[in-house]
């Protein structure tokens, strides 16, 4: 998109693009209700047109894709649709270290059958010398990062396990993780770390290639 054509974009569209980019800095999922209230206001009838034009602008100018991850509640996220070079899955700028930890967590969940108890996850992080109860020099409050931030950003999902007292939770991949990486990428990452062929893990390999 040239500078001139950028100037020809209707004000609601450019305003929405800026709104989405600001939200994306913290990877906060964006609700249709917030878009209507803050940006579109009296132009409700043109909602679809404005959102579609903003989506095209984001794709052409920033290489980002606007994706609706919840069609019932109309919740959107931005994902990077530019080719990812090896070893840069999910990483963007200053968030690189956190995204590295996230990739390790996503790998652990996938290798354990796509779902892990919270106690198993904390135990695993403990082995990596990342302690949920302690402040980490890079990640800060790890428990908060994993159970609140990554969940709010839709990288992870938590579900209460029935009939557990005190209540236990299980972690699974969230819709943003499904969009921004793949099981194939994650398996290749694990194989590279462990210096093994991805086919070493037969069932995971079969699932990743499906």
Could you explain the architecture of this structure?
The protein is α+β, with helices and mostly antiparallel strands and 210 residues long. The chain has 2 domains: 70 residues, Arc Repressor Mutant, subunit A; 116 residues, Orthogonal Bundle (Arc Repressor Mutant, subunit A), CATH 1.10.10. Helix content is 51%, strand content 16%. The chain has a 3-stranded antiparallel beta sheet with strand order 1-3-2. Strand 7 and strand 8 form a beta hairpin. Helix 2 packs across helix 4, helix 5 crosses helix 9 and helix 9 runs antiparallel to helix 10. The longest helix has 16 residues. The two termini are 37 Å apart. The N terminus is likely disordered.
Q: How many alpha or pi helices?
A: 10
List the uncertain runs: 1-8, 82-90
Radius of gyration: 19 Å
The fraction of residues in strands falls at 15-25%
Helix/strand class: alpha+beta
Shape: globular
Main pleated sheet: 3 strands, antiparallel
Q: Supply the CATH class of the largest domain.
A: Mainly Alpha
Superfamily (CATH H level) name of the largest domain: MAGE homology domain, winged helix WH2 motif
Distance between the termini: 37 Å
Question: What labels describe this entry?
Answer:
210 residues, three-stranded antiparallel sheet, globular, alpha+beta, 2 domains
